[in-house]
Design goal:
This protein is mainly beta. It has one domain (about 30-130, about 140-190). The protein is about 15% helix and about 35% strand. It has a four-stranded antiparallel beta sheet with strand order 1-8-3-6. Strands 2-7-4-5 form a four-stranded antiparallel beta sheet. A hairpin with a 7-residue loop joins strand 4 (about 100-105) and strand 5.
């Protein structure tokens, strides 16, 4: 290719020789329901009612061509759809300890499995009912971080398939149905520019 044509090609919207490097997050959201196994990052933006507040993933279970993603942090967010009682708070605590998240790449062994309790950073959750009215006994509070930092980043290549499986080993209490769980993958995105 001549130098003039090469320069024109490199100045186009997509160049094979230059790339952008971004600190980026891909995220997806699910609603708690009677379904015990949920697959995230497989329903893209605009399908099945998914809006940009639900996901920014544009393809079903795969990165777009011309992208490479190194994931350093898995972040979790939880939104209750209504005000909760103390009994429902205990149901949420149980759900954290009875639910796992797994990062899967088809054709490979699992890339990691964690409980929601670990991911939210809650090693102890204790529901307390005062013995006497007005009791206020201080308790050690967990440091709720909502993230898992990877010592060895997960790498996703262009057009490589992956998914996150959220599995409730005990069915979710119906009182929590419609609450939302959002998972965000944060890392270094390289995309052809």
């Amino acid at each position: 290719m001549s130098t003039a044509l090469q320069k024109m090609s490199e100045s186009s919207s997509y160049s094979k020789k230059s790339a952008e490097v971004l600190d980026y997050s891909y995220y997806d959201t699910m609603a708690l329901s009677a379904t015990n196994t949920n697959r995230l990052f497989v329903i893209p933006l605009g399908q099945a009612g998914k809006t940009k507040s639900d996901t920014n993933f544009t393809l079903a279970g795969t990165l777009p061509q011309g992208q490479n993603f190194k994931i350093f942090v898995l972040k979790l967010f939880y939104l209750s759809q209504v005000a909760r009682s103390t009994a429902e708070l205990l149901m949420w605590y149980k759900m954290l300890f009875e639910t796992t998240i797994e990062f899967r790449i088809p054709g490979k062994d699992s890339m990691g499995i964690w409980t929601l309790a670990e991911a939210f950073g809650v090693p102890s959750l204790f529901n307390l009912v005062p013995t006497n009215g007005g009791d206020n006994i201080p308790m050690i509070q967990p440091a709720i971080t909502g993230k898992i930092l990877f010592n060895n980043p997960l790498k996703i290549g262009s057009v490589q398939s992956f998914e996150i499986i959220v599995e409730h080993t005990v069915p979710v209490n119906p009182a929590l149905y419609t609450d939302k769980l959002k998972i965000s993958l944060n890392g270094r995105l390289i995309r052809l520019s």
